[in-house]
Write a structure and sequence with these properties.
It is built from five helices and eight strands; from the N terminus they run αββααββββββαα. The chain is of the alpha+beta class and 207 residues long. The protein has a five-stranded mixed β-barrel with strand order 3-4-5-7-6. The protein is elongated.
Length: 207
């Protein structure tokens, strides 16, 4: 899977999302995270309403880009097979979701391949971005019940149906219809015979 360029806009979105519920200690380079797993699990409605899109899916794999900015920041791009869409404009059966691992304890980091997640994402350019405080988490039965209460049962991504092409199959024992030349040949011969007969009659009449 090709790795998309990590643009300034995407990093800015990731930074803003991660800092929404983060308190930064003045004496520490790292950020202590207040949006614990317990907080996220108890705040589904607010997180879902704040997200651009909410859907479930399974992580197929991921790639990583490590930033050369003097920090340990890494941006992961996960390939996700979409299962059910509860909210938003996701229409593809496979999407890419970006996460980050940096200095904040809220960062999601690399999502586990083969695991089902409920994704609460924001849109940034042509990418979907998820962070630790946005609500993205492994699928739980109670979480699915809460999402269904908010948005209904969810819908799978639309299936693209290829355009059908008509084909004519030959029928055994039935010959192909004659071409225009073959069909017109007998009529043309009769016209020619008629013209020759007319010429002969005229010559005989002159004698």
């Amino acid at each position: 899977m090709p790795t998309p360029p990590v643009t300034l806009l995407r990093l800015l979105v990731l930074a803003l999302l991660s800092s929404a519920l983060v308190w930064v200690a003045p004496s520490s380079a790292s950020a202590a995270c207040t949006c614990t797993a317990a907080v996220i699990r108890s705040d589904t409605e607010r997180l879902a309403r704040n997200a651009n899109s909410v859907f479930t899916g399974t992580v197929v794999g991921s790639t990583v880009v490590r930033l050369d900015d003097g920090t340990a920041t890494a941006v992961f791009t996960a390939e996700v097979t979409v299962e059910l869409i509860y909210k938003g404009d996701v229409r593809e059966s496979t999407v890419e979701v970006e996460t980050v691992r940096g200095t904040s304890e809220c960062d999601l980091g690399r999502l586990e391949a083969g695991r089902r997640y409920a994704f609460f994402v924001e849109a940034a350019e042509d990418a979907l971005v998820a962070d630790g405080c946005g609500g993205t988490q492994p699928v739980r039965p109670k979480l699915l019940v809460e999402l269904e209460a908010l948005y209904g049962a969810g819908e799978p991504p639309p299936v693209e149906v290829p355009a059908e092409t008509a084909s004519i199959e030959p029928v055994p024992g039935v010959e192909d219809p004659p071409t225009f030349t073959r069909a017109a040949a007998p009529g043309g011969a009769m016209v020619l015979v008629g013209l020759l007969g007319l010429v002969v009659v005229r010559r005989l009449a002159r004698r």
